[in-house]
Amino acid sequence: MNITTILFILLSAMAAGSAIMMLLNKNPVKSILWLIVVFFAISGHYVLLNAQFLAVVNIIVYAGAIMVLFLFVVMLMNLNADSEPAKNYRLHLIGVISGGSLLLVLVSALMKMEMQQPVQMKIGDAGLIANLGRTLFTDYVVPFEISSVLFLSAMVGAVVIGKKD
Amino acid sequence: MLLAVDLALIIEKLVLIIVVVMASLVIAMYTTFAERKVAAVLQDRRGPNRAGPFGLLQPLADGLKLFFKEEIIPNFSSKFLFVLGPGLAMLTAMMTSAVIPWGDKVELFGRNISLQIADINIGILYVFGVVSMGVYGIMIGSWASNNKYSLLGGLRAASQIISYELAMGISLIALLMVTGTLSLKEMVVQQQSGYWNIVYQPLGFLIFLICSFAECNRTPFDLPEAESELIGGYHTEYSSMKLGFYLFSEYINMFISSVIMATLFFGGYDIPFVDETTLTANTAAILGVLALMAKVVCFIFLFMWVRWTIPRFRYDQLMYLGWRIMIPLALFNMLVTGGVILYFNK
Amino acid sequence: MQALTNRISQVSRKPMSLWERLYLPAIFKGMMITFSHIFKKKPTINYPEKKRPFSPVFRGLQILNRDEEGRENCTACGLCAVACPAEAITMEAAERQPGEEHLYREEKYAAKYEINMLRCIFCGLCEEACPKDAIYLSETFTPADYQRKQFIYNKSELLIPHPKENPEEYKKALGNRPVKAEVK
After folding, report:
1. Which chain A residues touch B165 with a CB distance below 8 Å?
2. Would the CB atoms of C31 and B309 count as touching at under 8 Å?
3. Chain B residues with CB-CB distance to C30 below 8 A
4. Domain limits of chain A?
C-alpha cells in the first residue's frame, strides 16, 4: 500500500461517487457541477499515470470549455427540477434494459481480461507531451489525420448552420 | 516507507507557498488602492489620501468595511453554491501562482532553494487550465443568486471567456513553437541568454494582451459586470466579504496575468542588459525578483491606464472582435511563425 | 430648417479608412491623452488642511459684535428683524440694570437674540439695517448638524469672543473685515 495506491483509491471513489451524484441529482445545473468533479478525478488519474499533458488537456477541453457550454445552455434555458418533463413507464423500462445490457457487456469484457497489473503507475512516459506528439505523428498518423478531417467537417458544418440563411 | 519524502523540502515549499499567497494577497490589496489612485491621477483628481500617510491604509479600511458588512444570502437561492461561487473564484485566482518562476535559486542554510513552487513540464498549460476554470466561480455565483441580472452577467462572462480563450491558446501555440518548451522556467532561462520573446512574437503578444484583458473581465471587456445595464452583473446579490472575494479575485487575476505576460514575453526575472552569471546567486535572485516585480507593476499600470481611457464594448462588438478578428489574427500569426521556423531550420 | 446658429457641423458618415478601422491607433491616441493628464495640476484643494480664501464680499455666518471694551453693541432695536426677508431673526429686549455698564454699551440690550440658520438666506440685509454695527456676516460657514433645533443659533453662539479676555479668538472672529467708523 503505497501513496500512489491510496491516491488511486481516493480518486476512483471520488470519480464513481460524483458520477452517481450526477445521475441522482434532479437539478441539471448541479448534475453538471458533479460531472465537472468527475472530470477532475479522471484528470487526477492521468497524473497518476504520468500523463500530465492529457490531464491538463482534459481539464482545459472538457471541464473548462465543454462543461461551460453545457452550463451555459442549461442556465439560459433555466431548466429546473420542476420543469423536467414527467417520464412515462415505458421510457423507464427501455432505459433499464439498455443500461443493463451495457453493464452486462462491460462486466463480461472485464471478466475475460487477465488481471495482471491493472495500471502502470508512474512508469509509462507515453503521456508526456514530446512522446505523445511523436507517437501521434508517426505510429498513429492516419487515425490522427482522419480525426482532424472529422473535426474540420464538424467545424464547417457549424459555420454553415450558424450562418444567416 | 509510506511517505518517504524530504522533510526540509516540504517545509521549504510550504514557506514558499505561504509567502507567495500572502504576497499576492497584499499586492492585490494595494492594487485596489493603486487603481483608485491611478484613476484619480488620470482624471486630475487626488484619490484616497485620508487613511494613513498618502492614504496608504485605505485598503485595510476597505477590507475592514467589507468584513463588518451584513451578510445577505437571498432566499430561493442555493446557499451552498452561493457561497461556493466566490470561494472558487478566489481559489482559481490563487492557484495559478504555483507554476510561476518568481526568481532564480537562492542559497539559504546551505540549500539551493528554487523560487518556484512547482516546475512542472506543462507549466503554461497548467496556467491555461486554471484560467479556464476561473469562469466557474462567476457562473456558479451568478446562477445561485437567482437574479436575472446576475444570470445575464454570468452568461456573458462564460461566453466571453470561452471566446477569448481560443485566441489566447492559439497565440500561445505560436509562442511555444518558438520556445519549444512548455515549462515557464525553461522559457525564462532561454530569454536570459537570448532575446526576449516579444522580439519574436510581437503580434502574438498583442493578441495575448487583449485576450488577457478579456479573461480578467477588465475594461473594455468588463461586460459581465456592466453596471449601466446589469446593475452589478454577476455580483449583484453579493454583499460583505463574499463580494470582497469577487473583487479581490479580479485584482489577483490581474496581477497573475501581468506576471504571466512578463514571464512569457518580457523575460520574467531576467534583468535587462545585465549578465546574471557575473553576480552571486543570492543577489541575482533578489534583483531578479525585483526586476519581475517592476515589469509586473508596468503591466498593472497598463491595465489601469486602459481601464480609465477606453469605454466598454457593446456585446456584439466584443463577440465580433473575439471570433472574427482575434482568432484569424492568431491563426495567421501561428502560420507565419511556423513558416519562418521551417524556413530557418532547413 | 433654418439653423439657429452657425456652429452646426454635419456628422461625417464616410466609411472608416483602414487606418481608422485598425482601432489601435485611436486607442493609442486616447491613452496618450489620459497619460498627459498625469502631469496636469490638480484643481482639488485638500480642504481641512488648506482653505480656499473667501472673497471680501463673502457673506457667511452672522456674528454679534462687541466694542473694543467688550460691551455688546446690540440695542435690540429690531431693525434687523424687520429687514430680514426670511424672517429668521427674533429677539427680546431688556433694560440695562445699574452695574451692568461693562456688559452692554447702551441702556437697552437684547436679552434673547436668535437666528434660525435654516431660514437665513445670508443676504446681509441685517448687517445693512443695523445702525449700531452690532451684527455682521462673517467668513465662515454654518457647520452641519444632526438636529434641526441645533440650527437656531442663540446669543451664546452668535456673540463674538471678548476682546479683552480672549483677544486672539476675537481677532480670528473679526477676520479681515474692514473696521467701520464707530457709530455714535
Report:
1. 64-65
2. yes
3. 309-310
4. 3-127, 128-165
Residue B259 DSSP class:
H
What is the value of pTM for the model shown? 0.79
- Using an 8 Å Cβ cutoff, are B3 and B226 in contact? no
B162 CA to chain A: closest CA distance, Å? 7
CA dist., res. A78 & res. A75, Å (int): 5
Residues A53, A129 contacting (CB under 8 angstroms): yes
DSSP string over C26-52: HHHHHHHHHHHGGGSPP----TTTS-P
CA distance between the termini of chain A:
62
Cis peptide preceding B220, ω within 30 of 0? yes
Chains that touch B (3 or more CB pairs under 8 A): A, C
Minimal Cβ distance to B128: which of A36, A60, A72: A60
Helix, strand or coil for residue B107?
A: strand
**How far is it, in rounded angstroms, from Cα A35 to Cα A44?**
14
**Alpha helices for B194-279 (secondary structure H):** 197-200, 202-215, 227-230, 240-265
Contacts of C44 in chain B (CB under 8 A): 44-46
* Conformation bin of residue A62: beta by default, left when phi > 0, alpha when psi is -120 to 50: alpha
Cell matching residue B112: 539551493
Of A47, A75, A163, which to mutate for an interface test with B (greatest number of B Cβ within 10 Å)?
A75
Measured between CA atoms, the residue of chain A closest to residue B122 is A53
Nearest to C110 by CA among C178, C156, C43: C156
B279-335 pLDDT, tens per residue?
777 777 888 888 888 888 999 999 888 888 888 888 888 888 888 888 888 999 999
Interface confidence (ipTM) of the complex: 0.78
- Grid cell for residue C51: 482653505
Specify the CATH number for the domain of residue C153. Answer: 3.30.70.3270
Taking contacts as CB-CB distances below 8 angstroms, the residues of chain C near B306 are: 27, 31
Total of domains in chain C: 1
List pLDDT tens digits, range C27-73. 888 888 888 888 888 888 888 788 888 787 888 888 888 887 888 88
Question: Is C111 strand, coil or helix?
Answer: strand
Contact at CB, B129 and A64, closer than 8 angstroms:
yes
- Locate the chain A residue with the closest alpha carbon to B138: A68
Q: Which residues contact A21 (CB under 8 A, 6 or more apart)?
A: A34, A37
For residue A30, list chain B residues with Cβ-Cβ distance below 8 A: 78, 81
Q: Which three cell numbers stand for residue B246?
A: 469577487
At position C36, the amino acid (one-letter code) is S
Total number of residues shown for chain B: 346
For residue C49, is it within any domain? no
User: Candidates 2.40.440.10, 2.170.150.40, 3.30.300.30, 1.20.120.1200; correct CATH number of A3-127?
Assistant: 1.20.120.1200
Query: CA-to-CA distance for C9 and C6, rounded, in angstroms?
Result: 9
- R_g over Cα of chain A: 20
What CA–CA distance (Å, rounded) separates B295 from B272? Answer: 11
For residue A81, the model assigns a pLDDT of 55
Q: How confident is the model at residue C183 (pLDDT cuts 50, 70, 90)?
A: very low
Beta-carbon contacts of A3 under 8 Å, excluding residues fewer than 6 positions away, are B2, B3
Reduce the DSSP state of residue C92 to 3 states and report it. Answer: strand
